[in-house]
Amino acid sequence: MTKQEQFLWAVQTIMLTNAVNLALEPEQAKKQRHIFSATGTMGTLHDALYASERIPEGMTAVDAANEFCGHMLENLREAGDKVPMWFARS
């Protein structure tokens, strides 16, 4: 697998397990349904494809996926976090 493919696989895995975890808690699921809805997922997928082409040379695919999902998935984002520069759109 290429680094880009590894990244996309890792992002997919994180997104799926995150959606399952959110869905298992009914109150969380109601509040954060937009994170794992088809529309919410489609927006994140566009960003994942964009980011997959911009992973810094010295960063592993898994580290990039973790950083990407940690920012893009609202329930994983820390308050005040800014988009990492390597996948920020200019």
Counting DSSP H or I runs of 4 or more residues, the number of helices is: 5
The percent of residues in helical segments reads: 55-70%
Structural class comes to mainly alpha
The structural domain count equals 1
Spans of at least 5 consecutive residues whose pLDDT stays below 50 are: none
Radius of gyration: 13 Å
Beta-strand percentage?
Answer: under 5%
- Shape, please? globular
Average pLDDT figure:
90
Mind describing the biggest β-sheet? Answer: none
- β-strand number: 0
| N- and C-termini, Cα separation | 29 Å
Q: Give the topology string: H per helix, E per strand.
A: HHHHH
Structural overview:
By secondary structure, the chain is mainly α. It has one domain. 64% of the residues lie in helices and 0% in strands. The protein has helices at 3-23, 26-31, 33-36, 38-52, 61-72. Helix 1 (3-23) runs antiparallel to helix 4 (38-52) and helix 1 runs parallel beside helix 5. 20% of the residues are buried. The model has no long low-confidence stretch (mean pLDDT 90).
Question: What is the topological layout?
Answer:
Elements: H1 3-23, H2 26-31, H3 33-36, H4 38-52, H5 61-72
Main attributes?
mainly alpha; globular; single chain; 90 residues
Short recap of the structure:
The chain has 90 residues and is mostly helical.
